[in-house]
Structure formats: structure tokens, C-alpha cells
Amino acid sequence: MSDDQLFIVVEGVEPADFPEHEAVALANDIHDLIREEYGKEEIEGVIPVVNPDAHKQMQATEL
User: Fold this and answer.
1) What is the C-alpha separation between 38 and 35, in angstroms, rounded?
2) Is residue 42 assigned to a domain?
3) How far separated are the first and last CA of the chain, in Å rounded?
4) Does residue 14 lie in a domain region?
5) Residue-wise pLDDT tens for the chain (63 aa)?
6) DSSP states of 7-61 as a string?
7) In the chain, how many domains are there?
């Protein structure tokens, strides 16, 4: 997996607003959108992060 990453933050919702399987489905939809609409065939994956503390930790680690 490459070091290139894009973070998308969705505000106004909480982890409890989405069942766990819906977060995965949303990630798959984003993956398909980037590949199909933007022609980015090299996309390697989309990971849903529904835990705000985990997201902050990921951001701190990657910077």
C-alpha cells in the first residue's frame, strides 16, 4: 500500500448514527465513486473509521 492518503471527515454525525455494516457499505461506495467517476483505478482501498478517537490517532500517526 502506498503512503498517499486522503482523509475525508464527515461532521454532524456520530458513530452511533450508523450500524457497523453501513459504515463498511459507505466506504465501498466511496471506493467505487473514486474509481468510476474520477478514473483512479490505482485506489487501494477505503477504510471506514467510525471512532473519533481512532481517527485522531490515525491523523497524528500519519502526519
Assistant:
1) 6
2) yes
3) 17
4) no
5) 566 777 777 777 777 787 878 888 888 898 999 999 999 888 888 877 777 677 677 667 765
6) -----S--GGGS-HHHHHHHHHHHHHHHHHHH--TT---------HHHHHHHHHH
7) 1
Check if the beta carbon of residue 46 is closer than 8 Å to that of residue 28.
yes
Spatial CA neighbour of 17 closest among 46, 56, 48: 48
Single-letter residue type at 1: M
Cell 487501494, residue located = 44
Within a domain: 44: yes
45, amino acid identity? G
**Which residues does 8 contact at the CB level (< 8 Å), separation at least 6?**
30
Kindly report whether the global pTM for this prediction surpasses the value 0.85: no
